[in-house]
């Protein structure tokens, strides 16, 4: 396949590359209706509303994955927050539960400022539902980075029910199950009209390189060792064949890559 345009996203030691068969006109709006944009999936593209919902979920899922790889490169803590029946909340209301989650975040930041030298609480949270007494009760899963906090202490800070904490001593990249686990809630139709995931404001953002900058970066990258994790195509009526690649760098190259990007 001949590449006309290239995009690169640097997510820590994970590099995502998209090679386009047809040119992209920067600044031009792209219509993604079922008639001119078709992914190689089994989704119902004959129903525009269904397709738009699925495309929105897909974009959110991809964005969340990029943020996880960018911010949690060595280890992470996986937390589950559930509501009990005594919390005096409508535990089926996403709006009400999200407010409770926001208040928890504020209380936890206050605790960290007092007991852990102001450790910055960064996280990526997803909303999921579990059937309870015939109702769809909200609960949250978080990929985060925290100092050691006893379960009972975090449960008191949460204040709405049970808390489960699991420390993982390897990055999410080496445990794809956690990515799939986080992604599954994003596709739930009950989240329509709500944020697909909840990221903290202090997350590092992936570095974006397009066009000539992306090509120059890839030429630079050829001088170093990397591992090809994935390479797969899909078809677009607008851009022809698009090949997406996922590369993994050795950890010692990350600072060098960031220095390259800054200069």
Characteristics:
5-stranded antiparallel sheet, 6 helices, alpha+beta, 2 domains, 263 residues, Alpha-Beta Plaits
Describe the structure.
This protein is of the alpha+beta class and 263 residues long. The chain has two domains: 5-71 and 209-262, no CATH class; 76-168, Alpha-Beta Plaits, CATH 3.30.70. The protein has six helices and ten strands; from the N terminus they run E-E-H-E-H-E-E-H-E-H-E-E-H-E-E-H. A hairpin with a 2-residue loop joins strand 4 and strand 5. It starts with a strand and ends with a helix. The model is unreliable at 28-44 (pLDDT under 50).
Brief write-up:
The chain has 263 residues and is an alpha+beta fold. It has helices spanning 48-71, 94-115, 151-158, 176-183, 212-221, 254-262; strands at residues 5-11, 14-20, 76-82, 122-132, 135-145, 163-168, 198-199, 207-210, 226-236, 240-249.
Helix % is 25-40%
Domain module tally: 2
Parts with pLDDT < 50 across at least 5 consecutive residues: 28-44
Order of SSEs: EEHEHEEHEHEEHEEH
Topology:
Layout: E1 5-11, E2 14-20, H1 48-71, E3 76-82, H2 94-115, E4 122-132, E5 135-145, H3 151-158, E6 163-168, H4 176-183, E7 198-199, E8 207-210, H5 212-221, E9 226-236, E10 240-249, H6 254-262
Antiparallel strand pairs: 1-2, 1-8, 2-10, 3-5, 3-6, 4-5, 4-7, 9-10
């Amino acid at each position: 396949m001949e590449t006309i345009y290239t995009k690169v996203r640097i997510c820590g030691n994970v590099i995502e590359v998209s090679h386009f068969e047809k040119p992209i006109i920067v600044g031009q709006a792209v219509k993604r209706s079922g008639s001119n944009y078709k992914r190689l999936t089994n989704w119902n593209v004959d129903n525009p509303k269904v397709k738009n919902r699925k495309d929105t979920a897909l974009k959110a899922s991809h964005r969340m994955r990029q943020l996880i790889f960018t911010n949690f490169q060595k280890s992470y803590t996986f937390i589950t927050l559930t509501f009990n029946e005594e919390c005096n909340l409508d535990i089926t209301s996403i709006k009400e539960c999200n407010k409770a989650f926001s208040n928890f975040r504020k209380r936890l930041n206050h605790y960290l400022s007092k007991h852990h030298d102001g450790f910055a609480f960064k996280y990526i949270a997803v909303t999921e539902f579990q059937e309870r007494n015939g109702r769809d009760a909200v609960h949250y899963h978080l990929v985060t980075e925290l100092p050691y906090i006893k379960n009972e202490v975090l449960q008191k800070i949460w204040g709405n029910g049970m808390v489960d904490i699991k420390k993982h001593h390897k990055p999410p990249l080496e445990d794809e199950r956690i990515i799939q686990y986080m992604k599954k809630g994003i596709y739930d139709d009950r989240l329509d009209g709500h944020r697909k995931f909840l990221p903290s404001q202090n997350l590092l953002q992936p570095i974006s390189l397009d066009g000539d900058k992306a090509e120059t970066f890839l030429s630079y990258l050829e001088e170093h060792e990397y591992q090809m994790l994935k390479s797969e195509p899909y078809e677009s009526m607008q851009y022809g064949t698009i090949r997406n690649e996922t590369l993994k760098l050795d950890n010692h190259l990350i600072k060098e890559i960031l220095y390259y990007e800054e200069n």
